[in-house]
Amino acid sequence: MQANAIEDLLTSIQTADGPSSVWDTAAAFFGSFGLDRIIYLDVGPVRERVLTTMPAAWMAHYTERNHSRIDPFIRYCAASLTPVGTGIDYLDEHSYLDARERGFIRKAAETGFRSGMSCMIRVRGPMGAAGWNLGSTMPRQQLEKFLARHGDIVRLAAHLSHEKLAQSGNDAEVAAPVLSPRETECLQWLAAGLRTKEIADRMGIRPITVELHLRNARNRLGAQTREQALARAIASGLLPV
Description:
alpha+beta; Beta-Lactamase; Arc Repressor Mutant, subunit A; 2 domains; five-stranded antiparallel β-sheet; 5 strands; 51% helix; globular
């Protein structure tokens, strides 16, 4: 399922005309899985892009009240690559939130946003931040059951969509890096959903060697995580799906 779904998404994105079309394609993809309250941001010194499937009235309220000042996603989730539960169904887990931040989450719940998960691509820093709040109207238990089954494909889709959105906003052509045959093969097995030990068994090498190949691939691709490396390889045409 993973390879077919990503191939369909990639085909649709590659034929998309401009960032709006890329976004529509990504939003439809996530929506088909029930992730119907998603927020994407890519902000930095030279870019400020915030896209969402949240209701227009909510976004107008968000902008009018300058809620970015108290949005817990920006303050906390955007500071870590580790996924963080979002939405009112996870509120009790975040005792560090102050009254205004908790009120913000309760207000967002009025739009139907019950549960979600952060998926950061670039953590908050001097170059800004980029990532997703993959929210939904699903209750927490249903979301977690879904992510346990399809979390890998959803996170890969988030990274791939980010790469295409970033490319669509950059007219300058950048030479694609060159991966070694072993690095490419490791990424191909990773795209197929295999874990490190399974990849090692398929390739007849040690797990530590697989880790080395994947680390080298991340370095060549300028990626912070395996998922980001995989998305960049696919988006750059270095890896067939």
